[in-house]
Description:
Low-confidence stretches: none
Number of strands: 8
Number of domains: 2
Largest sheet: 5 strands, parallel
Helix content: 25-40%
Radius of gyration: 17 Å
Order of helices and strands: EHEHHEHHEHEEEE
Amino acid sequence: xxxxxxxxxxxxxxxxxxxxxxxxxxxxxxxxxxxxxxxxxxxxxxxxxxxxxxxxxxxxxxxxxxxxxxxxxxxxxxxxxxxxxxxxxxxxxxxxxxxxxxxxxxxxxxxxxxxxxxxxxxxxxxxxxxxxxxxxxxxxxxxxxxxxxxxxxxxxx
Length: 157
């Protein structure tokens, strides 16, 4: 069994199994402050077998396209997209407490598990709505075309 870790898995402080293959994308290293205690933990994990692997660009693009279709795109960082793409590439399970990563994983048929939490109970598709006038949008826009109000992400029902 192989696992891809996101930053929350490392920052959880939980002991992770080294009897399996563990991977992170380069973005996870970038999110952890260099010189800090968590960075030292990652370096120790790498010495014990944690591998840093970049996902193929085509899979990153595929995850981004899917995230745009579900409305998760604005909720995911570049590193989150890398985590999902790497799990696809390696046919691995994602270990994360990040709801948006779990939502995308479920949507894309990728195995996932929580570190400190149980994991998501239902899958969401997101849409966008103006806070001022209530107009709905299928895709994210900077401001409402009708009234100039702020656009917020909301679940589709």
